[in-house]
Amino acid sequence: MRAFPVGRLTGTFTRHTEEGHRMAATAEQRTYARIAGIMFLAHFIIEALGDYPTIIARSGETFAQTARYVVEHERLWRAALLSVGLAWISIAILAFTLYVVLEPVHKRLAQLALILRLGGSFVGAASLMFRVTKAQTYSASAAATFTTEQLGRMAAMTQQGANAGVYTAWIFMGLGSTIFYALFLRSRYLPRALAGFGVMTSILLVAVPMGSLAFPQYQATTGPLW
Q1: What SS3 state is found at 7?
Q2: Are the C-beta atoms of 202 and 174 separated by less than 8 Å?
Q3: Percent of the chain predicted with pLDDT > 70
């Protein structure tokens, strides 16, 4: 039997047992849980605004076709890259809100999950420099300084750097999410089925990029992910 104080703001004291009794949430936890939900949705919206014009809509295009689009819509392209950067920042904010919600369940594990998720946010944001560099290769095609083939090879190399950064960020994020969902499973703040599904998907978020880094030849079958 182990007790956890979760009512510091209200002065109440609730016990959580190893048998899995539900823990009572404080007003602060409920507030941060709502913020976490908002940030979760905001992250996907912001990320979609960045990835749709730069990746999804460009699927199947040649380097020359994408370069022409970037030159004609340079402001839109840069705004999309900014959205990607904001999406990585939103991951850090989301991690902090989850930490506040789950810290009473197990402080040390919640701290570890926060650190891992922040690491993923920082590495992912840093990988944005490769996408900015790749955008420069598209813009350079208009100056005719290099041949299209040379620029295409440079763009492919910067894409590999961006992919490696994102895969590393996913590993950090997956490890952190696994711990967070395990704490949700323990606390019963979420339905057990939902928390268990979160643990499984988080483990996949670790396994898939690890496989991609270990066997890069298989990335060619799916194309660039970032």
Answers
A1: strand
A2: yes
A3: 85
The two three-digit tokens of residue 143, written as one number: 């100056």
Residue 12, strand partner residues: 7
Q: Which amino acid is at 31?
A: T
Number of other CB atoms surrounding residue 206 within 10 Å: 18
pLDDT tens profile 17-72: 344 456 678 999 999 999 999 999 999 999 999 999 999 999 889 898 999 999 99
Asked if 7 contacts 24 with a C-beta cutoff of 8 angstroms, the reply is yes
Residue 64: which residues within 8 A CB-CB, separation 6 or more?
141, 148
Residue 226 has pLDDT above 90, yes or no: no
Half-sphere exposure of 177 (CA within 13 A, CB side): 24
Q: Are 117 and 176 in contact (CB under 8 A)?
A: yes
For residue 169, give every residue at least 6 positions away whose Cβ sits within 8 Å of its Cβ, in sequence order, or none: 88, 119, 120, 121, 123, 124, 127
Instruction: Report the predicted TM-score, pTM, of the whole model to 2 decimal places.
Output: 0.82
CA distance 203 to 172: 11
DSSP assigned state of 59? T
Q: Which residue is it, tokens 């197990």?
A: 106
Q: What is the per-residue pLDDT across 119-171, written as a single tens digit (0 to 9) for each?
A: 999 999 999 999 999 998 888 876 667 888 888 899 889 989 999 999 999 99
Cα gap 31→36, rounded to integer Å: 9
- Rounded CA-CA distance 85/77 in Å is 13
